[in-house]
Design a protein that fits this description.
Bound molecules: S-adenosylmethionine, iron/sulfur cluster
Strand content: 15-25%
Number of strands: 12
Structural class: alpha/beta
Order of helices and strands: EHEHEHEHHEHEHEEEEEEHHHHH
Length: 335
């Protein structure tokens, strides 16, 4: 595939966006409280969602411009009926493919992920206790997710676990999660709870990067080792000396990593979002359907990207519901 003008992916702060995250659907087989508003969401009519070919076409354009990494997310990416077709097509592109899933039906796709050369799978699980898992996801599916985590490890995948930390909910399980890394080669990723429309966020529910480290160091005063992070990694990586796996902290709220951000997002209804926190959206699907050139949409989206968290550059701004609730709910953005 002939490469084109890669400078289109560079924003006004010199950040090159080589990582595209595609949301395949707004639907999900779980109802996580921090992601899906209690009243549910109004689903976009099917005719306004990207088809398999449209996803492929847009992804291909990004790869031509210089994108080297694509992650599939959602909603739950695997609930899309044409998931196999989409992944098979995207696997023909010269990019590193990744997927973030809740794991509920991931056992069906082991062979597909292998043939698509996906080596790492990220699975979300916020509690190791059945009742708490049900409380946060509003579904009784803990065992399925747990079995998927074991199955993927057995099948030779690198398994990362995403855990959204919420004060007075799962902070008492932080050490239990770390202990999983003693004998299993898991990468545990603790994520600071982020504010989005309808998710009842408030700063008192936040467990900060520093608080988390303090909790871990209380149990492991001398054994916490800082690891080298990959470039553009949003996670700060650590391990407990002598443990097989590792853990990481993703601190978008207290310690944003915007300076090295290389991500751009495509929603299931074909809008580009230049930042997870930004309410600005740029329709790429409409011009594509009208047979127009879509490069200038990509260029506009990146030229209008704020330096920090969609313009919420101070904690006060981020904590202000008038600002963060203008954005979509996470389930319709694609985390
Ligand atoms: N359904 C898949 C899953 O749960 O992994 C993929 C989509 S989900 C939106 C992607 C990631 O975003 C998950 O790891 C989820 O925990 C995280 N997430 C959702 N809402 C969040 C919030 N308010 N703060 C932090 N992380 C959040
Ligand atoms: Fe579904 Fe993932 Fe959102 Fe949970 S976090 S509701 S699994 S999309």
């Amino acid at each position: 595939m002939a490469k084109q003008n890669t400078s289109i992916l560079i924003d006004t702060f010199g950040r090159k966006h080589t990582y595209l995250r595609i949301s395949l659907t707004e639907r999900c087989n779980l109802r996580c409280t921090y992601c899906m508003p209690a009243e549910g969401i109004t689903l976009t009519p099917k005719e306004h969602l990207m088809t398999t070919d449209e996803i492929y076409h847009i992804a291909q354009e990004f790869v031509r411009l210089g994108v080297t990494k694509i992650r599939l997310t959602g909603g739950e990416p695997m609930v899309r009926k044409d998931f196999t077709k989409i992944l098979t097509k995207l696997a023909t592109l010269p990019v590193e493919l990744g997927i973030t899933t809740n794991g509920i039906i991931a056992d069906r796709y082991i062979d597909l992920l292998k043939t698509s050369k996906i080596k790492t799978i990220t699975i979300s699980i916020d509690s190791l206790k059945k009742d708490k898992f049900q409380k946060i996801t509003r579904r009784n599916e803990f065992e399925k997710v747990w079995n998927t985590i074991q199955l993927y490890q057995k099948e030779g995948f690198i398994v990362k676990l995403n855990i959204v930390l919420i004060k007075n909910f799962n902070e008492d399980e932080i050490i239990d999660f770390i202990k999983l890394t003693q004998h299993q080669n898991l990468i545990i990723r603790f994520i600071e709870f982020m504010p989005f429309d309808g998710n009842q966020w408030n700063v008192n529910k936040l467990i900060t990067h520093q608080e988390l480290l303090d909790i871990i160091k209380y149990t492991y005063p001398l054994q916490v080792k800082r690891l080298t992070d990959a470039s553009n990694d949003t996670a700060k990586n650590y391990k407990i000396e002598g443990y097989k796996g590792s853990f990481a902290i993703i601190s978008s709220v207290t310690n944003p990593f915007c300076d090295t951000c290389n991500r751009i997002r495509l929603t299931a209804d074909g809008k580009l979002k230049n930042c997870l926190f930004s309410a600005n959206e740029f329709s790429i699907l409409e011009p594509l359907r009208a047979n127009k050139n879509i490069q200038h949409i990509i260029s506009d989206a990146l030229n209008q990207k704020y330096k920090t968290r969609g313009g919420m550059d101070t904690p006060d701004k981020l904590h202000n519901p008038d600002l963060h609730s203008k954005n979509r709910s996470m389930i319709t953005i694609g985390g």
